[in-house]
Amino acid sequence: MSEKYGLFITLDGPSGVGKTTVSALLAEKLAPHSSGIVLTTTPSKSNIGELARRSTYDLHGLALTCLVAADRYHHEQTTVRPALEAGKVVVCDRYAPTSLVLDPQDGVDIAFVRSLYRCIRLPDIAFILIGDPALCAERTARRGTYSRFQPTSPADSTREVEGFKAVTAELVADGYPIHLHNVHDATADHVADVLLKVIFEANEGGL
Ligand SMILES: Nc1ncnc2c1ncn2[C@@H]1O[C@H](COP(=O)(O)OP(=O)(O)OP(=O)(O)O)[C@@H](O)[C@H]1O
Ligand SMILES: Cc1cn([C@H]2C[C@H](O)[C@@H](COP(=O)(O)O)O2)c(=O)[nH]c1=O
Predict the structure, then answer these.
(1) Stated pTM of the model
(2) N or C: which end of the chain has fewer CB within 10 A?
(3) Could you tell me the distance, in angstroms and rounded to a whole number, from the CA of residue 20 to the centre of ligand 1?
(4) Does 143 fall in a domain?
(5) Per the domain annotation, does 163 fall within a domain?
(6) What is the per-residue pLDDT for 1?
(7) Residue 92 alpha carbon to ligand 1 centre in Å
(8) What pLDDT is recorded for position 204?
(9) Which CATH number characterizes residue 153's domain?
(10) What DSSP line would sit under 84-125, residue for residue?
(11) Is residue 207 part of a domain?
């Protein structure tokens, strides 16, 4: 990594696997080693992102796919790029891999989704967290669902976990900088430590 340019880390995976929790812990652990941290998410907190997040029951197929993609490009222009140009570390909870899993579940052609993201910025490291589907489903149910895509049964969760494994294999074959990690029953703190180690190793011990 050049001295001037930041580092872009993304986390994807099934609902309830711990992405939001681990993203926050990772940002906390990276902070002392960086010249600034931006902890963010897609769908983003912008108007477009909030619309996408609350529209999963109203919008279907291509309409939702394109809205989420519009938000992701806007987020790239307004949040990710400026932070990286300022030398900061960006930790993003969900990114394009999630769309490659969810959009085809909604009947959208995977080739169309891939082409939609042809110009999206590649992360430096894209973590895919997977875990026991029953545990993911239980955590999601305990928290309560607010999106049509969130699993309501272990079978839904299994389908989601398998979707992330399949998309990971395709992205690896395309040279996307993926790091797949099975969280098993580890604490979120332990998972964040494992990811931190991967980041340091990829950056030769420093940021
Ligand atoms: N490793 C862990 N061990 C135990 N509980 C965890 C762990 N990681 C997260 N949790 C708990 O599981 C719940 C879901 O976590 P979190 O919101 O981080 O998951 P998520 O992958 O971001 O889910 P979603 O995609 O549905 O938002 C939270 O209550 C969180 O405290
Ligand atoms: C990234 C992404 C998200 N969505 C929808 C469906 C998800 O459940 C929510 C994100 O909420 P979470 O708290 O991060 O789980 O947004 C989508 O439809 N397509 C996507 O690519």
Answers:
(1) 0.97
(2) N
(3) 7
(4) yes
(5) yes
(6) 43
(7) 15
(8) 86
(9) 3.40.50.300
(10) HHTT-EEEEES-HHHHHHHHHHTT--HHHHHHHTTTSPPPSE
(11) no
Q: What is the domain range of residue 64? A: 7-202
pLDDT in tens, 131-176: 999 999 999 999 998 999 999 899 999 999 999 999 999 999 999 9
Whether 2 maps to a domain, the answer reads: no
Query: 18: which DSSP letter?
Result: S
Provide the β-strand partners of residue 12: 128
Residues near ligand 1 with C-beta < 6 Å? 15-21, 139-140, 143, 150, 183, 186-188, 191
Q: How far is ligand 1, taken at its centre, from the CA of residue 188, in Å? A: 8
Give residue 173's Cα distance to chain centre.
Answer: 19
Report CA(106)–ligand 1 centroid distance (Å): 24
Domains: count for the chain = 1
For the CA of 147, the closest atom of ligand 1 is 26
Residue 93 phi/psi, 5-degree rounding, is -85, 105
